[in-house]
Design a protein that fits this description.
Helices cover about 20% and strands about 25% of the residues. With about 350 residues, the chain is an alpha+beta fold. The strands form five sheets. Strands 3, 4, 9, 10, 13, 14 and 15 form a seven-stranded mixed β-sheet that branches. Helix 5 packs across helix 6 (about 305-325). It comes from Thalassospira xianhensis MCCC 1A02616. One of its GO terms (molecular function) is aminopeptidase activity.
Length: about 350
C-alpha cells in the first residue's frame, strides 16, 4: 500500500466545528513539554518507546500535579497507585510495549538516581511512571528487544526536541492497531481563554484498541477495514493530557475521565480485555520535593469554568486517535500479519 496518503485527520476534513487549536495542534503546545521516540522496525520487530517530559527541569525535585483514571483495568502500567495517592508525577512518562514495562521502570529509576543521588538514601525512593499496550500482533513481543538504552535515548530525544514530533507508526506506536487499522501515536491541542489569557490543553494517545467494524468517523460513516477478520475487543489505549491551566488533583481526575467520552464517540466500548487508561497533568504549578513550609499555596481553576476543559479533553482525544491512524501507513509485521492504513481507505473512499 502507498504511504503517500498519510497525513493529518484535518487534511481529510474529518475535524470541523472544534475549539481553536494551538500552533502545533499537539500536546507540545503546552510550553516546556516535549516528546521523544525510539523506533525499532525490522521484520518481526515492530515496536519502540515514547517518552514525555512535562518540563525540562528536575522532575523529582519539581513534581507535576497529576491524576490517573482507569477506564478499564486490563493493563500492566507502573506507578499509577502513587500518582493517585500523592497527586503528582516525578519522572518522565514512558510508553512502551507490555513486556518492556520492567525494563522501562529500571531505566527511569537509574535516570532519576543519576540526577538525584539522595534517592533511597537521604530521601524517599522514586515512582517511575510507565504505560503499555500490547503490540504482539505486528511485533514479536516475546523477543523482548527493548533495552534500557532505548528508554534513555527516547528521553534524550525528548530533551532535544523542538516541540514538533512524529505521529503514527513511530516510537511505541510502531506495532499498534486500532479498529482493525494501523494505530499508533497521535496528538491534538486546544486553546482555552481564561481571565483574558490564552492557555493550552493538549493530548497524546497511544491507540491500540477497538473492534473492527465498530469505528465511527466524526461525519457518521462506519468504517470496516478491508481483509481484517472480526475479533473481540481486547486492545488498549493510553491517553496523556496536559495543560498549563492550574488545576488540583481532584480537578485533574475529573478531566482525565472525559477521555472516555472521546473514545465512545468513535465506537469504543472498552471491552473486557482492553486496558484503557487516561492521565491528566498540569504545568500550571509544581510541587517542590524540598519544600520546608508547613502550609503551601495551591492554584486551581474556578470549577464553574471546567466544562471548557471537559470539552477539550473529549475533542483532543478524538482528534489524537484519528491522527494516530491517518499518519500511520499500512504495515506488515510479525508472521506476515498486516494492518491497512486508514489514510489509504479514506483516499480510496474519496475517489
Amino acid at each position: 500500500m502507498s504511504v503517500s496518503f498519510c497525513k493529518s485527520a484535518r487534511a481529510f476534513n474529518l475535524i470541523n466545528r472544534s475549539m481553536p487549536t494551538g500552533v502545533l495542534n499537539a500536546i507540545t503546545d503546552v510550553a516546556g513539554l516535549s516528546v521523544g521516540h525510539v523506533t525499532l522496525r525490522d521484520g518481526n520487530r515492530q515496536t519502540g518507546v515514547t517518552a514525555i517530559l512535562p518540563h525540562q527541569g528536575n522532575l523529582f525535585r519539581q513534581k507535576v500535579p497529576a491524576a490517573a483514571h482507569v477506564i478499564n483495568g486490563f493493563g500492566k502500567s507502573a506507578g499509577l497507585m502513587q500518582v493517585n495517592e500523592l497527586g503528582c508525577l516525578e519522572t518522565p512518562i514512558v510508553l512502551t510495549n507490555t513486556l518492556a514495562v520492567g525494563t522501562a521502570f529500571n531505566a527511569l529509576v537509574r535516570h532519576a538516581v543519576a540526577g538525584n543521588p539522595d534517592i533511597g538514601r537521604g530521601t524517599g525512593t522514586v515512582n517511575p511512571l510507565v504505560f503499555e499496550c500490547n503490540d504482539g500482533f505486528l511485533n514479536d513481543i516475546q523477543a523482548m528487544c527493548i533495552r534500557e538504552g532505548d528508554i534513555d535515548a527516547a528521553i534524550a530525544n525528548a530533551n532535544n526536541s523542538t516541540g514538533v514530533f512524529e505521529q503514527g507508526a513511530v516510537g511505541v506506536g510502531t506495532g499498534m492497531s486500532c479498529f482493525g487499522f494501523k494505530g499508533g501515536i497521535g496528538s491534538a491541542s486546544r486553546v482555552i481563554e481564561l481571565d483574558g489569557n490564552s492557555y493550552q490543553f493538549g493530548t497524546l494517545v497511544l491507540s491500540n484498541f477497538g473492534r473492527p467494524g465498530d469505528f465511527i468517523l466524526p461525519d457518521g460513516r462506519r468504517v470496516v477495514p478491508p481483509k481484517v477478520r472480526d475479533v473481540p475487543e481486547k486492545g488498549s489505549v493510553i491517553i496523556i493530557m496536559a495543560t498549563d491551566i492550574p488545576l488540583d488533583h481532584r480537578q485533574l481526575d475529573r478531566v482525565a475521565k472525559r477521555g472516555g467520552a472521546g473514545l465512545a464517540r468513535m465506537g469504543a466500548y472498552w471491552g473486557n480485555g482492553s486496558g484503557d487508561i487516561a492521565l491528566a497533568m498540569t504545568t500550571g504549578w509544581t510541587i517542590s520535593h524540598d519544600e520546608d513550609r508547613d502550609i503551601v499555596p495551591v492554584m486551581m481553576l474556578n470549577e464553574n469554568r471546567i466544562d471548557r476543559l471537559f470539552r477539550a479533553a473529549a475533542e483532543t482525544t478524538v482528534e489524537a486517535v484519528l491522527n494516530s491512524m491517518t499518519f500511520a501507513p499500512a504495515t506488515t509485521g510479525f508472521r506476515g500479519n498486516w494492518r491497512p492504513g486508514l489514510a489509504d481507505w479514506l483516499h480510496g473512499s474519496d475517489t
